[in-house]
């Protein structure tokens, strides 16, 4: 029964993604979501640069890259932090700043980082680790009710900007590991997408999480 529910969830996600994409290939964002202003956003990110880098490419493995990430995902996560729905120790210092900003300001910040180019990561050269990561990412493991990551995040880890599913290609290993473990423990629970990720991550072992993080870090076109 559990396997069937995961399959249905994955199928529904794929169906919804295709429906959104086919509705309008000319739009950068789905109907009802407006893009922010890159120039205005560049004036609002001084507080972010210490951890995420001036161009959105963080230097610390535990801090996520924001460069090239889709606007919708960044905007929604900033809203979750601002509203207190998502908590993170490293973000606590900037919460008061986020709470002083208007929604349009958050859109502008999202647009700024989305406009930047993400640096390419390099996966650890471990044949077994890479094989496990590639298998899980591309095909999942239906015996453990783990769907393929490609269903939402695409073959090359680009994510889906229309649906707001994040890009994972080149993302920092430490951040990917901690995020998957936070989903597994249900510590990260902001937004509807979190429920899907929780149901998947609860079936991942530490070894599988390490393998996925290593593989996704090295993804690029």
Question: What is the global morphology?
Answer: globular
Average pLDDT taken over every residue: 89
Distance between the termini: 37 Å
Largest sheet, in brief, is:
none
What's the multimeric state?
A: single chain
Q: Rounded to an integer, what's the Rg over CA atoms?
A: 17 Å
Strand content: under 5%
CATH topology of the largest domain: Cytochrome Bc1 Complex, Chain D, domain 2
Helix content: 40-55%
How does CATH name the architecture of the largest domain?
A: Orthogonal Bundle
Count of DSSP strands = 0
Residue runs with pLDDT of under 50 for 5 or more positions: 1-9, 11-27
Q: What do we call the CATH homologous superfamily of the largest domain?
A: Cytochrome c-like domain
Number of helices: 11
Structure, briefly:
The chain has 221 residues and is an all-alpha fold. The chain contains 11 helices and no strands.
Descriptive notes:
With 221 residues, the chain is an all-alpha fold. The chain folds into two domains: 2-20 and 121-217, Orthogonal Bundle (Cytochrome Bc1 Complex, Chain D, domain 2); 38-114, Cytochrome Bc1 Complex, Chain D, domain 2 (Orthogonal Bundle), CATH 1.10.760. Helix content is 52%, strand content 0%. The protein has eleven helices and no strands. The chain has helices at 2-23, 38-42, 46-52, 71-83, 95-99, 103-114, 127-139, 150-153, 173-184, 192-201, 206-217. α9 (173-184) crosses α10 (192-201). It is globular and about 45 Å long. The termini are far apart. Mean pLDDT is 89; it is low at 1-9 and 11-27.
């Amino acid at each position: 029964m559990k396997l069937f529910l995961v399959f249905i969830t994955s199928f529904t996600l794929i169906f919804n993604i295709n429906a959104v994409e086919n509705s309008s290939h000319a739009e950068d964002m789905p109907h009802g979501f407006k893009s922010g202003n890159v120039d205005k956003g560049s004036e609002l990110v001084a507080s972010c640069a210490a951890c995420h880098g001036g161009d959105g490419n963080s230097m610390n493995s535990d801090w996520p890259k924001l460069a090239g990430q889709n606007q919708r995902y960044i905007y929604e996560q900033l809203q979750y932090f601002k509203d207190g729905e998502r908590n993170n120790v490293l973000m606590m210092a900037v919460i008061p700043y986020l709470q002083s900003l208007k929604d349009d300001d958050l859109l502008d910040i999202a647009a700024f980082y989305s406009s930047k180019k993400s640096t390419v990561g390099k996966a650890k050269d471990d044949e077994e680790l890479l094989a496990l990561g590639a298998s899980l990412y591309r095909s999942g493991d239906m015996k453990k009710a783990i769907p393929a990551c490609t269903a939402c995040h695409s073959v090359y880890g680009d994510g889906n900007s229309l649906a707001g599913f994040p890009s994972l290609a080149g993302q920092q290993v430490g951040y990917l590991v901690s995020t998957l473990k936070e989903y597994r423990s249900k510590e990260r629970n902001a937004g509807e997408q979190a429920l899907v990720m929780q149901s998947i991550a609860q079936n991942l072992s530490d070894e599988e999480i390490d393998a996925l993080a290593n593989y996704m870090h090295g993804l690029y076109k």
